[in-house]
Design brief:
Layout: H1 2-22, E1 30-32, E2 38-42, H2 48-56, E3 60-65, H3 74-83, E4 86-89, E5 92-95, E6 99-100, H4 103-114, E7 119-121, E8 135-141, E9 144-151, E10 156-160, E11 165-170, H5 172-182
Parallel strand pairs: 2-11
Antiparallel strand pairs: 1-2, 3-6, 3-8, 4-5, 7-11, 8-9, 9-10, 10-11
Helix pairs in contact: 2-4, 4-5
Amino acid sequence: MKTACRSVVFSAAILSAAASLVACDRPTNASANQAGEKRPTAADLAVHKPLAALIAEADALVLYEGLPHQLWESDLLASEKASKKTVALHDYPFYADAIAADGDDAKTLTAILSDAKSLTPYAGPKRCGGFHPDWCLEWQAGGEKVQCQLCFGCQEVKFFSTKHVLHADLSAAASERLASVLKDYREQRPQRAREQ
């Protein structure tokens, strides 16, 4: 009986460890801004309101394209990081060349991400191999920078400003609309075999 119990406990521990390897990031209690100061990370959507107000005032929107997935495309990620100029934004790698979103697309992307109906409270990790931002959108408004990382595999979003961090899920409709607009801006990230 003891052997069977140990086996069940061991199996549960193995399954838990495996699940953590393929699950998306859990929200942290705090995130450091560029100066290293801690900001609260909110899972509740009340933080979205001041972020939405900031991005609605922005003059321009630039896009940073995400590199290949850290788990499913680790060899390709290493190759891209070695051969292309990249930048780390909130601990995730992106191609360094910022892409200016054209006027209509910038308005559409901003409208989707300003709309509280596009977000739902973060429901926890998904089994997609880890949060992997496909894009980072960056708005400048009155000297304030707001960045938004989008993971289409998880249908999650992370917003960052000097005062706030928000980790939320995207509605299926918002995720689909965002992906539809952003697909035309993909310039550097190699296509996966299933996309060809």
